[in-house]
Amino acid sequence: MLHIMNTSHNKQLVLLRHGQSTWNRDNRFTGWTDVPLSDQGHDEAVEAGRWLSEQDVQVDIAYTSVLQRAIKTLWIALEESDQMWVPVNRSWRLNERHYGALQGENKSEMADRVGAEQVHLWRRSFDVRPPSLERNDPRYPGRDRRYAGLGASDIPLAESLKDTIDRILPYWHETIAPAFNQANTILVVAHGNTLRALVKHLEHVSDEEIPLLNIPTSVPIVYQLNSALCPLNEVHTRFEPAVEA
Ligand SMILES: O=C(O)[C@H](O)COP(=O)(O)O
């Protein structure tokens, strides 16, 4: 596992994808479906928390989505590192990319039906949207109480990575980045594609290169940031291009 130098004068951003969920385990497209952590995912979150502790990562403020796999990973990591008192903010803007009508489908069965290339395009391309939900579909998030405050145009029917970037960046610019005025270390626990979106933005990863970026579950990604919140280190080159849950 990665080791970091604790430089108290630099701003530090720690990104963490949630531990394995039951649908990661079962190889199902998940998106905004609110599935729990698997037993393995729980153990991965404990490991991430131990790592925070061993590296003496002193979190000042934490951000997560409104999906339980991320919320629970954050809880466990804060509990394990004895930082449960840290202020936590949740936002739908940090939710996983909405996988539209693919949500619930098995990824390998879908590849058998439509071809591996099409599934790869849906999963990793920059701007290809998966097939959309209809508003009368039981999976449409508009009838879920947690999204009651959102306008219809904010509630996705399906999102490409580009759409996900468009919804996450306002939250980065308006909420997370300004919090560095008070905080030295910010922890963001989110999802594979919302973190791809953030890494793409922070490291200026090109549209052509982004399909190669795959973020593993529960492996902390640590950026040291300068005063303009530009990363002083690169992390995206560390990741395997493999497309796995
Ligand atoms: O929503 C999902 O299915 C996963 O969290 C991410 O899936 P992906 O690796 O297929 O983008």
TrEMBL record:
Pathway it works in: Carbohydrate degradation; glycolysis; pyruvate from D-glyceraldehyde 3-phosphate: step 3/5
Binding-site positions, substrate: 17-24, 30-31, 69, 96-99, 107, 123-124, 192-193
Cleavable signal peptide: none
Any Pfam family matching the protein: His_Phos_1
Site (Transition state stabilizer): H191
Residues annotated as catalytic: H18 (tele-phosphohistidine intermediate), E96 (proton donor/acceptor)
InterPro entries hit by this protein: His_Pase_superF_clade-1, His_PPase_superfam, PG/BPGM_mutase_AS, Phosphogly_mut1
Catalytic activity: (2R)-2-phosphoglycerate = (2R)-3-phosphoglycerate
Major enzyme class: isomerase
SUPFAM superfamilies, per the entry: Phosphoglycerate mutase-like
EC number: 5.4.2.11
Keyword terms, alphabetized: Gluconeogenesis, Glycolysis, Isomerase
Family matches, as Gene3D superfamilies: Phosphoglycerate mutase-like
Recorded family membership: Belongs to the phosphoglycerate mutase family. BPG-dependent PGAM subfamily.
Stored HAMAP family: PGAM_GpmA
Protein's job: Catalyzes the interconversion of 2-phosphoglycerate and 3-phosphoglycerate.
The protein's name: 2,3-bisphosphoglycerate-dependent phosphoglycerate mutase
Protein species of origin: Neorhodopirellula lusitana
Organism lineage string: Bacteria, Pseudomonadati, Planctomycetota, Planctomycetia, Pirellulales
